[in-house]
């Protein structure tokens, strides 16, 4: 799988509707209105920009401008890391989205996921952004919150921190399952 496309896909999934609208507005001088209007996701927008060679693996200047304009410094730093290292590397000992701890947490935490995220020091603004992006899907809210925590903590996102936070929220059964 192409690491650059994976990076763009991760950007797309973390964009809110408002941020996507802002990006579409900023692309009006590059993309015809007829082509831009039906765009519903970041992936669709990125596909058009890739097809027109406005962004490429070697030239991400326009993408940097877009991310800077919508004030997504977190995505901008991931992009810079990609450019510097050739691709975004998965930090060591960081929980992988496909790993069992994430699955166990998502299967067992439920409505108290916000309390867990606050224990992990994820700010309320990010939590609210995740809820707004996934208003009717509790599990997806938790998945996105855990991914946001991983991105925010980077190399410091440890499974041990998840277990400590779970215990701090009196979710000892879930913590025990994660340890197993």
UniProtKB/TrEMBL annotation:
One of its GO terms (molecular function) is caspase binding. GO terms for biological process: extrinsic apoptotic signaling pathway; innate immune response; positive regulation of cytokine production; positive regulation of extrinsic apoptotic signaling pathway; positive regulation of innate immune response. Keywords: Apoptosis, Cytoplasm, Immunity, Innate immunity, Phosphoprotein. The keyword Cytoplasm applies. SMART domains: DEATH, DED. Its main location: cytoplasm. InterPro entries: DEATH-like_dom_sf (IPR011029), Death_dom (IPR000488), DED_dom (IPR001875), FADD (IPR016729). Gene3D superfamilies: Death Domain, Fas. Residues 3-81 form the DED domain. It is found in: Cytoplasm. Residues 98-180 form the Death domain. GO terms for cellular component: CD95 death-inducing signaling complex; cytoplasm. CDD domains: DED_FADD. It holds the Pfam family Death. Can self-associate. Component of the AIM2 PANoptosome complex, a multiprotein complex that drives inflammatory cell death (PANoptosis). Component of the death-induced signaling complex (DISC) composed of cell surface receptor FAS/CD95 or TNFRSF1A, adapter protein FADD and the CASP8 protease; recruitment of CASP8 to the complex is required for processing of CASP8 into the p18 and p10 subunits. Interacts (via death domain) with FAS (via death domain). Apoptotic adapter molecule that recruits caspases CASP8 or CASP10 to the activated FAS/CD95 or TNFRSF1A/TNFR-1 receptors. The resulting aggregate called the death-inducing signaling complex (DISC) performs CASP8 proteolytic activation. Active CASP8 initiates the subsequent cascade of caspases mediating apoptosis. Involved in interferon-mediated antiviral immune response, playing a role in the positive regulation of interferon signaling. This is FAS-associated death domain protein. The lineage of its organism: Eukaryota, Metazoa, Chordata, Craniata, Vertebrata.
